[in-house]
Amino acid sequence: MSEIKVNKVSPSTGTNLTLGDSGDTVIIPAGATINNQGTATGFPQTVLTFPTVTLMVVTGGSATTVSPNTSTACTITGTNFVSGATVNLINTTGAIVTPEATGFTNSTTLTAKVNLPEGAYFVRVENPNGFSGRSSATLLTSSGTPTWTTSAGSLGTFAGGTTGNITTIVATSSDASPALTMTEVSGTGLTGSGNANCQLTVSTTGVTTTGTIASSGGLGGSASSTQTYSFTIRATDGTPQSTDRTFTITTSYGATGSTQFN
Predict the structure, then answer these.
(1) Phi and psi, residue 137, nearest 5°
(2) Which of 36, 112, 124, 253 could form a disulfide with 134 if both were Cys (CB 3.0 to 4.6 A apart)?
(3) Contact status, residue 147 vs residue 171, Cβ threshold 8 Å
(4) By the 8 A CB rule, do 89 and 72 touch?
């Protein structure tokens, strides 16, 4: 038996295409689909319907980041889902993770309980008929929150009016890029002349970020008596997830030198 495999057979303009001769049998193998989108007779018109995946969030909210290696219930949004659909999450490294459980809600909503190593994931849905669709971008990220290395509470007692670098605070992130950032939470007492009169600058090496607390105008500003300044710093990674920590700096006056406790 001869065999010819081509992607398309087209008749000459204005002619007809004939498959076989009178009395021949044209066999369409089991499982094949005839997609009749024209006016051919004798064949059912078939439209190939593929699922699409547009969104995956933590169930009950809008978060698209989950904690690593932790079972988390998520909701998948898209179109053309069918009962019995399966879900795979594909890491940007190519690794494939199957959810612990998958559920069908309706043609636009699936549920999945995931437990993912760190990374960013595409989402692929396959219907029971074998038709599948994958998100065009990563929809879910598994990432740990930033971790503070410096303990909360007192950073030490320093002479009022001190200029230059005063002390440092340190946090780490499992994501080296983009780098962790540190910002003072609005309304707390680090920056400004009525507060500790300090500035915060940030530098990152690898996954470790250091915040340097310094004062260009003198620690404590115009204060002339001992003060304790409380302030909250927010460490934020690129996912973005954040962790707050509250510290204090105490000033002293009329004494030489300073003490620091880390």
Answers:
(1) -135, 165
(2) 124
(3) yes
(4) no
Say whether both 187 and 91 belong to one domain.
Answer: no
What string of DSSP letters covers 225-246?
Answer: S--EEEEEEEEE-SSS-EEEEE
Place of tokens 């004798």: 42
Q: Which domain holds residue 131?
A: 52-142
DSSP of 159-218: ETT--EEEEEEEEE-S--SSPPEEEEPTTSSSSSTTTT--EEEEEEETTEEEEEEEESS-
DSSP string, 26-49: ----TT------S--SSS------
Tens digit of each residue's pLDDT (9 = 90 or more) over 229-252: 999 999 998 877 889 999 999 999
Do you find a cis peptide bond into 240, omega within 30 degrees of 0? Answer: yes
Instruction: Judge whether 178 lies within some domain.
Output: yes
Tokens of 33: 């689909």
CA distance 218 to 197: 7
Q: Are 152 and 241 part of one and the same domain?
A: yes
Q: Which pTM does this prediction carry? A: 0.63
Evaluate whether residue 65 is within a structural domain.
yes
How far is the C-alpha of 55 from the C-alpha of 135, rounded, in Å?
A: 8
- State the chain's mean pLDDT as an integer: 86
Domain count, the chain: 2
Domain boundary residue, one of 120, 142, 164: 142
- Same domain, yes or no: 136 and 163: no
